[in-house]
Hints:
Helix content is 34%, strand content 23%. The chain contains 21 helices and 24 strands. The strands form four sheets. An eight-stranded antiparallel β-sheet has the order 20-19-16-17-18-21-23-22, sandwiched between helices. Helix 4 links the parallel strand 4 and strand 5. It is elongated.
Amino acid sequence: MVKVRAARPDEAEALTGLVMRSKAHWGYDPAFLDACAPDLRIRSGDVTARRVAVAENGRGEVLGIASLEGTPPLAALGLLFVEPSAIGQGVGRVLYRDVLRRAVDLGVRRLVIDSDPHAAGFYRAMGAVATGAAAAGAAVAAPDAEAAAAALVRFETAPVPLAGWARAWTGGGRAVHLGNVGEFNAQFADATLDPVQGPAHHYACLAAFYSPYPAALVLPRPVPRGWTELVCRQLGWSGVEVYDGLLDGDADPGLCDAVRARPALAALLTGGGLPLVPWGRTRPFGRLAGRPWRPGELRYESKSAAHSLFGRILAGGGHPGIVLPRQWRADGRWAAARRLAARTRAGESTVVKSEHGVGGSGTTVLTPERVRAAGGARAVLRRLPRGPLLVEEYVGGPASGADGGPRDLTYDGFVDDAGHAHEVGGAVMDVVDGCYRGATVGPGVVPAWAEKSLTAFGAAVGRELAESGYRGWFDVDFVADGSGRLAPTETNLRLTGPSVAFMVAARLDALRGAGHLVRIADRVELGARLPEGQLDELCAALARGCAELGAVFVPAIPTGAFEPAPWLGVLVAARSRAVLDAAEALVRAEALAVGAMFGPPRPSSRSAGVRRPMPARVTGCPRTGSVL
Length: 628
């Protein structure tokens, strides 16, 4: 374990030696190194003045050095050098992140880095943005050829603290994440939801991202250890406890009751004073968390109830950029068929919804052409589940990505335990035929014309939810009508794919500097079904490939890779739309090509049930736990 501490004045000479050895590692000749030496020398008085810190191993051996120089709001990373024998072991990453943390504490908002060209790839991978060659005079005097090869490259980053909403979400600290997706879905008994809950247990892997920095993950299915290790490395986490494989099979969705059935585990998770964060509120979660269950607090998860809520808000005025599509409730398929047939004859497109479908399940977009091609309204609806259905006016508009901008947007926020509504932000969703496929969050993602209307209406919904007694995360989904207006379509009273992207963006901004765009793609097809070892190799290769682009790759849902039709859920992050798009394209292409990428498969260590013991342990943890 590498730890960072302040350097001592009596270490100045030894630290100068480390700096010169590190510089020489790149093959510079003696004349060039002699020319560099005065600028790279550390004097005893510099240690405090230049805010020098060192990284040392468990034996107290110094492995690297970094300095933070200047006066806020502008500062410079003056030195960052690693002992040659320790290069490639993560020491530079630890020191760089420590410099950003200290810069935030000092009030630095712009950090300049004049990098040796051999280190440019490192700073790009750490999230710094290249701005060109360093200012004149930054490179030391040296023979012309050597000086040209050693011309410094200037990078910048913007250190920021963790976003205010993220601090409010978990009280400023870490949290226990409960992946109770199946349990949440099961409470609605919606006919469009998979009764076996297999997909829900895959999506429970998103529990890794229910806050910017978890203390523990509680998961229904076993997950690959390599996955959790890579996620921790990419997001700078340590000491994350993992409790997985708690359910016997897909048919049992009750994660919170499974925790309560293990009293020692329940006591461990609830007795440490950390907040418990579920995918969504349920009665079993209330029992586990000791939180009273409020009857009806999830009533606006119903699409018809949400539609009524939207109507009441609009009746109060003040939202000229919002238009509400008409909606009719049909008690069964044949009543819905009559309404659909009438709209088809009038040449109108229609959306048919169930009350509680998730991710687009239970939502069908029907144009007149589709209805006629299927043999009429009754033929179409015969394929839908029995029970109440909602028939809704289709809001026309440009296809997403057309000149009119994005088609599907969402507003995310949450209501804290005191009843205060907090704004998180807006996102653009990737939706095809009513089915959600992913989302992008970050600066400038929501177009300017939509931002004010989306934010104002989303905040109004948050206030109404708080007044109704709801506590937790929520979103409001919208479609754009192509005329500068937004139509709200539903609320989700739970975490979602966009919420995961917001959590990761908040973490990366605090870890790497402000300005990250984050995209979550729910399903990236794999060209072959992979055993665990080869999945680890693929994800490591994708992380390296994205880093070379200046992007970050984080595998979000690994367990889909073991299905007969294999897939992955992924997150990619970058500071520009072009790099973000390039990173996603790289991931999709490499994932499809995976069949030719590896040799013979290695034996898989995956097993059913609770997590196998791991080398790193926390004393007193039950055998279901491992620490990463």
